[in-house]
Amino acid sequence: MTHYDDAMKSATSSPIKAVFFDIDGTLTSFATHSIPQSTIHALKKLKELGIKIFICSGRGPSYMDVILDMMPVEFDGFVGTNGQYCFDNHGFLERQYMDREDVGIIVDWLAKHPEIPANFVEEDRAYFNFINDILRNAWKSLGGTAPKVLVDGNRAQHATDHDMLQISAYVNDEQQKEIISLCHNVSGVRWHPSFVDLIPADGGKPAGMQRFMKHYGFDQSQVMAFGDGGNDITMLQFAGIGVAMGNATDDVKSAADWVTDSVDDDGVMNALVHFGVISQ
């Protein structure tokens, strides 16, 4: 376990009232494709203490059920598509769609690169323009946590007719830069090396977190966040305490206040105990 700065937020001035969790590589293991028992125990302890727990993921709304079905704990709210879609089970709903002109630019770019698959995420569905081996291998890496793949090339061609939360394109870094340079309000975040999530540039996980913070009256110092991928960097920087998993990439670790153990080595539990949020 490594602490990047012993003086940085080793104790909080305000008690933690909410904890936001990424899913893949944070709550669930890429090795076992399940949620460690220690993590389940930690989530239950947070609930017993009255601390709100939230999912904060790049997954779209229709891709969360496969994870929630594994959870023996009820979350207080969900931040999906990297901050663009926020909801709970009690009627709270706020969302931010991509600019339709930007969606059109991305669709046109993909039409000129017919070898590149992309996932189009709407409020009630998510679908691909087509599938190839790169996509199949990426989905295979998620194991039992992978949602079903729906292909709807015709709807993808007419994506500007629908409200789009996110488009995930299976492109490399240079292609990602090219797409973003053509758009007006788009940024790209990655949690898997095979694809980039294209979202509004003024969106992101912190924007989603702030929606729930405003709803419940939390301030930044009362919020903790856990993540492991590139799309978690701004979330960890924004939270009062940002914790990177031991299996996180180096850039994520550098952005965090604390680096805990890996998801498979009780990382969530150990960090919550370290900061005194819960007892063992």
UniProtKB/TrEMBL annotation:
Its EC number is 5.2.1.8. It comes from Bifidobacterium tsurumiense. One of its GO terms (molecular function) is magnesium ion binding. One of its GO terms (cellular component) is cytosol. Keywords: Hydrolase, Isomerase. The keyword Isomerase applies. This is HAD-superfamily hydrolase, subfamily IIB. InterPro entries: Cof, HAD-like_sf, HAD-SF_hydro_IIB, HAD_sf. Coiled coil: none annotated.
